[in-house]
Specification:
Length: 350
């Protein structure tokens, strides 16, 4: 998994700078290497002191103190540059050509308990996760963000281009990630709008689309009001309905096995898809509603028909990024440092 760092509310991924960012954990080898060098020096000092006494130890280490320090530092630097070469740093070069301007996609994923209903296989939530993951792995040139919501909403993943990490974080989402129960579609859309507008101040504004993935049970009744806010601010909202019209009971894991969610009267709750409400919200903003149980690969279909056409090719004079591997530079530095370390070690022995 490539590392993501959050700077000013925006996600900065190592994949923006390296072609092999998954190799970054190897950098942690520098820590035990530094410890080993330090321990070796202490052990060497102890042997000399045991053999000749503290006075000879002082004389021995006063002979070449700076050279020993530089040798150790050079060794660590050579190892660091070797690992950087393994990660393949990459950057672009100026030129003229066409580049695709991607789209900012913010997914609002419903984590309420009704998404555990099994009228879609394996259940509504896992089906939604599979759809989002598949799109993240196939779509190119875009940034994606993830909003978790139930009775409250929070930005789980700010806009990022690191699709591997994004897909992995989507897979980890569960109802336990949101403390307040219920379904507040309004809070989800408000959080999504904030994610797009905050990112716009950090990077050139891109076409932005909100995608609401839910069973449509708007328990707080704020969905239509939030959709109107999206329309007023110029954002398109697409909705993907997860569930069926007939609905399903909601399984709840317990210590005694699986039971079903009940209401205040003790009756088992049957959750069904509110397709009409989701369709109304999408059409209010010029978006589309996709029925998750009737359309095969609903998110892929939505992407091809309504989102991909928003991507456009732009003529660039000097800002065309070709992002070629530049591993040769850190490798060249590493080789030079290894030679310098060998020379210093040879002088120390002499």
């Amino acid at each position: 998994m490539a590392a993501i760092f959050f700077v000013g509310g925006a996600a900065v991924s190592l994949s923006d700078f390296f072609l092999q960012p998954q190799a970054w954990p190897w950098l942690f080898l520098l820590l035990p290497l530094a410890w080993w060098i330090s321990a070796s020096e202490r052990k060497r000092s102890g042997r000399i002191q045991a053999a000749f006494g503290s006075r000879h130890t002082t004389l021995a280490f006063e002979a070449w103190p700076q050279r020993r320090n530089w040798q150790n530092r050079t060794y660590l630097a050579a190892a660091a540059f070797s690992l950087l070469a393994l990660m393949e740093p990459a950057w672009g070069e100026g030129g003229r050509g066409q580049t695709r301007q991607g789209v900012d996609l913010v997914f609002c994923l419903d984590l309420s308990r009704s998404m555990l209903a099994e009228d879609l296989s394996p259940n509504r939530l896992q089906k939604a996760q599979q759809e989002i993951q598949a799109l993240a792995k196939s779509a190119e040139g875009h940034r994606m963000a993830l909003v978790h919501f139930a009775g409250e909403a929070r930005l789980s993943v700010p806009l990022t281009r690191d699709m591997d990490s994004f897909a992995e974080l989507v897979a980890y989402a569960s109802p336990e990630d949101v403390r307040k129960g219920g379904t507040d579609l309004g809070a989800a859309l408000e959080t999504a709008l904030e994610a797009v507008e905050n990112a716009a101040s950090l990077e050139q504004r891109k076409p932005a689309v909100l995608v609401l993935v839910t069973d449509g049970e708007d328990l707080q009744g704020k969905g239509l009001l939030a959709a109107e806010v999206c329309r007023q601010r110029g954002f398109t909202l697409h909705t993907v309905g997860m569930g069926t019209a007939l609905g399903s009971k909601i399984p709840i894991p317990t210590e005694d096995g699986e039971q079903f969610l009940t209401d205040d009267q003790g009756q088992e709750v049957v959750s069904s898809l509110d397709a009409s409400g989701l369709k109304q919200m999408a059409e209010m903003t010029g978006g589309a509603f996709v029925h998750g149980s009737l359309v095969q690969d609903p998110l892929q279909t939505l992407y091809r028909n309504r989102i991909l056409p928003l991507s456009r090719f732009t003529e660039m004079e000097t800002a065309l990024s070709q992002r070629r591997s530049r591993f040769q530079w850190p490798l060249l530095f590493a080789l030079g440092l290894w030679l310098l370390e060998w020379w210093l070690a040879d002088r120390s022995r002499g």
